Amino acid sequence: MSEGNGGGPLLKVDGVSVRFGALVAVNRVSLEIQPGEILAIIGPNGAGKTTLLNAVSGFYHPYEGRIIFQGQDRTWLKPDQVAALGIARTFQNVALFKGMNVLDNIMTGRLLKMKGSFVLDALYWGPAKRQELEHRAFVERIIDFLEIQAIRKTAAGRLPYGLQKRVELARALAAEPTLLLLDEPMAGMNVEEKEDMCRFILDVNSEFGTTIALIEHDMGVVMDISDRVAVLDYGRKIADGPPEQVRTDQGVLDAYLGVGHD
Amino acid sequence: MTSPVRELDPERDTFPKLARGNAERIPGKVAVREKDYGIWQSYTWADYLEQARLIALGLASLGFDRGDKTAVIGDNRPQLYWAMLATQALGGVPVPLYQDSIEKEMQYVIDHAEAKFAIVEDQEQVDKLLNLKAQCPRLEYVIYDDPRGLRSYAEPFLLSLERLQELGRKFAQDNPTYFEDQVAKGRADDIAIICYTSGTTGSPKGVMLSHRNLILTARNAATREGLRRDEEVLAYLPMAWVGDHIFSFSQSILLGFAANCPESAATVRHDLKEVGPTYFFAVPAIWESLLTTVMIRIEDAAWIKRAMVHFFLRLAQRMERERLNRRPVPLWPRLLYPFGRLLVYGPLKDNLGVRRIRRAYTAGEAIGPEIFVFFRSLGINLKQVYGMTESSALISIQQDGDVRLDTVGTPIPGVEIRISENGEVLFRSPGVFQGYYKNPEATRETLEEGWVHTGDAGFIDHDGHLRIIDRAKDVSRLAGGTVFAPKYIENKLKFSPYIKEAVCVGQDRPYVTAMLNIDLAAVGNWAERRNIPYTSYTDLSQKPEVQDLVGQEVVRVNRSLSEEELLRGAQIRKYLILHKELDPDDQEITRSRKVRRRFIAEKYAPLIEALYSDADRVAVEAKVTYEDGRTGTVRADVRIREAELEGVVGVR
Predict the structure, then answer these.
(1) According to a count of CB atoms within 10 Å of the terminal CB, is the N or C end of chain A lower?
(2) Do B37 and A143 count as a contact with CB atoms less than 8 A apart?
(3) Does B149 contact A137 at a Cβ distance shorter than 8 Å?
(4) How many CB pairs under 8 A join A and B?
(5) Which chain A residues are Cβ-neighbours of B263 within 8 angstroms?
């Protein structure tokens, strides 16, 4: 799915820093995401993981450095432009439309793909109807894929937390992303829900070829599903490599066990 | 009474031949639907036969011989019904398995049945089969329908159904008449299916049923019940269960009506509403859960609606009881009933999806009379059926207009019933099974000169209706000599929306005691409305408020027992709420939700002893088996409570 840059990385984060006033949340981080891989970004609380994700998806703009997606500089794009390029994400705190049902929530993920004409849409006629049906058919495939048929017509706000997370993933998938950013997809889930989510993430990766970058705290999950792990600590990248290598890295152990930073 | 059909036309004496007939006579009529991607996808009889043909040819290309077995595992899917027909077309035998079986159970059946092929639904089942394949040397190929998650699986014996059908297409080029020739070779007395019974004791037994067994039984029952080609059934019960096989496969093919496969197990309630079946079968547990849903919703309604609903439900139930007891219904309720239909019964039935039902059945376990009356009072033609796998599912059915509370009806055409000297029900019919697969000893025990021992205690009443009391080996007496029929009391307990399972103990004991499971959904809802916090089933079950709630239900049962002379002395003296739900994975109940009494008596022996001591609580630790086969322990402090007895003299 990631053609057009001749075998290079899908996403390249090049020396990116993000500052909030005097606070440097992300400090000259460089990172590459290869097409088709699952990259886990880990690190202690406040390490700058979410900030980095926000910079990639255009919520924040870096103070220095460049973000290159599919070979082109994307540093200064706004969130909707980033989404239009094929980068979708989910949020640490579920951000669904609580009053809307699951189906409609997922349909919002298709909005960028819809070509609207106010009058035709209002009349639900001709191309507007055809378009609606096509998008609905696509969304149904995702509903089937994530096994949420039973809650299709349930208001998102009434669902248990684990299912809300799954619906959020569905909405992100509805945008047919090339790169999927997942911010703590398994936070607050029980073991069974985590296992389900792991399976869905792996299935998304293998069925759709979607490249995935995820932030996760559960080390078991990270070691199981990711091809590569990048570790952040105090805004810096301190390790990057295959899970088994990162697991034994002294710098990583220090960061997690709390060796003093001077 | 209509005379039973006993002989078969050789052109229509197997299911593949019947399906071929449908594809010729009614090719455009819908045979099976499946809700997929949110839409009901339909397949006609022409599609049905063509799909089965391609599967059969694909199997043939992989070396399927006559007599080979195909294990079929998954939720009800058109593809799996086709796989069964395809297997039969090649002179093979489909062996459906319960899709939620754990590996060990699955391994036993696959190995025992000597299945050479397995056709399964998805990755979940494939994973189980890959793990057990080493122990099942005869299993050669595993074929799956849904490819999701299986892309990276490289096992050479694993292929998709699509690929199998492709192989079939190629095979057909060199062997254009192969399928037709194989179908023509089929005979009425070939084995059509082996159903493994979940069995309350011992290892599962493979019940062999021939095409003749199934066709004659399906035909005779359909004639008695007046089934038509335009019936709609919901194919939602496990495919491994003979009941589903007779309704969704045998009768569907025989009469040409449509079977509708739900989208997933979780959407059945919703799909029921969309399909609106005309012919519907459910085990008592499902009727109970439908009733529980209704009751919860009523409790959540505004008081004025609630009052109206209760008023009309009571009215209808009183009328239905009069009718069932053959007493005249007074005039004023008859005048009010149409208003009830307009305001309550109609909308309620519509909401449940049971409005179009012409015939509904319950079997498998005795149904609580209160549940039975409830659904009948709404105007649903709910009837009791009696049968077992060994009889090709059906033995007796209550006839329209001759429905009673406590009987299982009269024998269907072709079935003879006899009661043995020790009170056991025996039957003889064209549906009598061909024996247990590779188990002649068990066959000899059950099948004597054409008569099958059902293992049920019962009698035939003066109207010719069969009445079942309990499992023959379960009816016993208390130490004082009072008749103790545990299931009868348990069913009364289970009518309460708050009680999900009940196990009564009392044989050779001074009094009756009960171990209960609360219904987590209903009691949880009740607790939430009263702001009672809880964390888990175990926690909720031991809350004093919940114990009080359940206590009231036990007293209600005692009151109802006190009204029956024979059982007055068998009221529940003490009860406890179990700290975990009875679960088929822990072998406490069977997959069709029958209590395994003996196993429970052993497993919960300390609890039972405590019920007959002065203790008011007992600490327990129980092993539980999770769905993936791992085990864990649950610890809890279980309280023992005493219940009030009603109108009893001289027991205390």
Answers:
(1) C
(2) yes
(3) no
(4) 34
(5) 149-150
Structural domain contains residue A147: yes
Q: Are B381 and B360 in contact (CB under 8 A)?
A: yes
CATH number of this structure's domain B476-642, picked from the four choices 3.30.300.30, 3.20.20.70, 3.60.150.10, 3.40.50.720: 3.30.300.30
Lowest mean pLDDT among A24-38, B83-97, B505-519, B627-641: B627-641
Residues of chain B with CATH 3.30.300.30: 476-642
The lowest-confidence range among B18-22, B38-42, B362-366, B644-648 is B644-648
Test A150 with B149 for CB contact under 8 angstroms.
no
Q: Which of residues 117-176 of B touch A (CB under 8 A)?
A: 148-149, 151-152
Domain count, chain A: 1
Q: Helices in B90-152 by DSSP H: which ranges?
A: 103-113, 123-132
**d(C-alpha B588, C-alpha B577), whole Å:** 15
Summarize pLDDT for B146-172 with one digit per residue, the tens.
998 888 899 999 999 999 999 999 999
Q: Which residue of A has its CA nearest to B266?
A: A150
The minimum CA-CA distance between B632 and chain A, rounded to whole Å, is 14
Residue A178 inside a domain? The answer is no
CB contact under 8 A, A150 and B270: yes
Q: Report if residue A257 sits inside a domain.
A: no
- Give every strand in the sheet of A228-233, ordered side by side: A87-90, A179-183, A211-215, A38-42, A228-233, A236-241
DSSP-derived 3-state class of residue B571: coil
Question: What is the domain extent for residue A133?
Answer: 98-160
The percentage of residues in chain A with a pLDDT greater than 90, rounded to a whole number, is 53
| A4 has pLDDT over 50 | no
Residue A199 CB contacts under 8 Å (≥ 6 apart), including other chains:
B149
Q: What pLDDT sits at residue B368?
A: 76
Interface mutation target, options B36, B160, B263, chain A, most CBs of A under 10 Å: B263
Contact check, Cβ <8 Å, A144/B151: no
Chain A CB contacts of B152 under 8 Å are 206
pLDDT on residue B31? 97
Q: Where in chain B is the domain with CATH 3.40.50.12780?
A: 10-278
Q: What percent of chain B has pLDDT over 70?
A: 96
Q: Measure the CA–CA gap between B326 and B219, rounded to whole angstroms.
A: 31
Better-scored residue on pLDDT, B326 or B212: B212
Q: A207: which chain B residues are within 8 Å (Cβ-Cβ)?
A: 148-149, 151
Q: Is the ipTM of this complex over 0.90?
A: no
User: Rounded to whole angstroms, how far apart are CA atoms A193 and A181?
Assistant: 19
| Rounded Cα–Cα distance for residues A110 and B38 (Å) | 17
Whole-angstrom distance, CA of residue A186 vs CA of residue A90: 11
What CATH number should be reported for the domain whose range is B10-278? 3.40.50.12780
B629 touches chain A (CB under 8 A): no
A134 touches chain B (CB under 8 A): no
Query: Of chain B residues 523-542, which have a CB less than 8 A from chain A?
Result: none
Confidence of residue B627 (pLDDT cuts 50, 70, 90): low
Q: Which pTM was predicted?
A: 0.80
List, in sequence order, the alpha helices (H) in chain A. 49-56, 79-85, 102-108, 118-123, 127-145, 161-174, 191-208, 219-225, 243-247, 250-257
Distance from CA of A136 to the nearest CA of B (A): 9
Report the distance separating Cα B92 and Cα B156, nearest Å.
23
Where does B245-283 have alpha helices with state H? 252-255, 268-275
Mutate to test the interface with B, among A135, A139, A144, A195 (most CBs of B within 10 A): A144
What whole-number distance in Å separates Cα of residue B388 and Cα of residue B452? 10
Range name among A229-233, B370-374, B560-564 with the lowest pLDDT average: B560-564
Domain-embedded: residue A5: no
